[in-house]
Fold this sequence. Notes:
Number of strands: 16
Distance between the termini: 37 Å
CATH architecture of the largest domain: Alpha-Beta Barrel
Helix content: 25-40%
Mean pLDDT: 96
Number of helices: 7
Structural class: alpha+beta
Largest sheet: 9 strands, mixed
Strand content: 25-35%
CATH topology of the largest domain: D-amino Acid Aminotransferase, Chain A, domain 2
Radius of gyration: 19 Å
Low-confidence stretches: none
Order of helices and strands: EEHEEEHHEEHEHEEEEHEEEEH
Number of domains: 2
Amino acid sequence: xxxxxxxxxxxxxxxNGALVPWKDAKLHVLSHGLHYASCVFEGERAYNGSIFKIxxxxxxxxxxxxxxxFEIPYSVAELDAAKRLTVEKNGLTNCYVRPVAWRGSEMxxxxxxxxxxxxxxxxxxxxxxxxxxxxxxxxKLDIAEYxxxxxxxxxxxxxxxxxxxxxxxxxxxxxRKGFADALMLDWQGRVxxxxxxxxxxxxxxxxxxPIADCxxxxxxxxxxxxxxxxxGVEVIERRIMPxxxxxxxxxxxxxxxxxxxxxxxxxxxxxxxGAISRQLMEDYTALVNGQK
Length: 292
């Protein structure tokens, strides 16, 4: 499948306070963010012209930067306005929204206290990753070799670019073997998350999901947990060991890109997408389109 490279597209990108032509939104090859991963980002979606959980994402964006010891030079309100402007100027109503912030090229060493903090916002058309009917068949997941790191060894509560290096490796390996994605364990060998989405399970009518203490507690994850509780479904956040997967009946992943997507297989373990997965998939779709 031919995909137009992201640096060759038309439109506008908001960069450091102003809209610039898409192809002019560039950074220098000696930018600190490129060499030392001093970069944070967000993944958001606009539905019917409105960005879902826009302010919550802006708040997390600034918090992620603080964890990496730099400050984004725009307030939450300014970021919200910039995202709305970028969606509007690109003539999109349903799209993906990508804010990103990184240290610039003023310093090129591990220390970079005086590097300029750059901020950009890009938007592009990105439909749902899976057809609704296809979703209910469930996707298949590999089990990744890499694990989510000990939170004492990495800034796991930041949406930091460097944390996704092992996610890319793991997803590539999974796709080469015919899987859609990979389930990652945590540093102690417990179930954690997928490469870009959180994971939830169903057993005897209750949802079980890993405690998000060494990986990102996703905004979509929190939203789906809220929807489940509104339906009267019990949600249990706990440690889940891999051998427990054989006892769990349903599984689904959730994230801005994946939205809510059922899972039919994780390595040797099989699941049957069922009523709770479907209900939450439908509830989430209704919520993001209604923006209530």
